[in-house]
Design a protein that fits this description.
Strand content: 25-35%
Order of helices and strands: EHHEEEHEHEE
Mean pLDDT: 92
Low-confidence stretches: none
Distance between the termini: 28 Å
Largest sheet: 7 strands, mixed
Number of strands: 7
Number of helices: 4
Radius of gyration: 14 Å
Shape: globular
Length: 141
């Protein structure tokens, strides 16, 4: 089931984000993850349009949107390969139309997912906070 995020989801969503982020981003430091967790809790979740996907009543993933941009798409790694990430993006496309996203170049999991979905690379830049290359992607028209 996909439903809108409510503030009571915050702790569970942050847990899912942390395990998913550490899985997909082993190249990022614990200090970066700690800083990002605070920003997600205090800034991004309150500002973004977020949808949660549940399995057996428990949130296992989410997508956060800023207009038609995916600010975050994270799924508990034990639920990868079940079509849940695709379902979240499908839901977002129905809401917003074609989407954009940024993903770290070294995030092989995310890059493979977005490539398979049909996103294409449009640009790349050096992300100062993470000291990583971030790739901008957009859905094929």
């Amino acid at each position: 089931m996909i439903r809108p995020y409510v503030s009571e989801d915050t702790d569970r969503i942050l847990h899912v984000w942390r395990i998913a982020s550490e899985f997909a981003h082993p190249f990022l430091s614990d200090a970066f993850h700690d800083m990002a967790a605070s920003a997600i809790r205090d800034t991004y979740l309150p500002q973004a349009e977020t949808y949660v996907i549940e399995v057996d009543g428990t949130p296992v993933g989410f997508i956060s949107l800023l207009d038609n941009h995916i600010g975050g798409l994270f799924l508990d790694p034990q639920f990868h390969g079940r079509g849940l990430g695709r379902a979240l993006v499908d839901h977002a496309v129905r809401q917003k139309g074609p989407l954009t996203v940024e993903v770290f170049r070294e995030n092989r999991i995310g890059r493979r997912f977005y490539d398979a979905y049909g996103f294409v690379e449009t640009d790349a830049y050096f992300h100062d906070l993470s000291q990583q290359i971030s790739v901008k992607m957009a859905m094929k028209p």
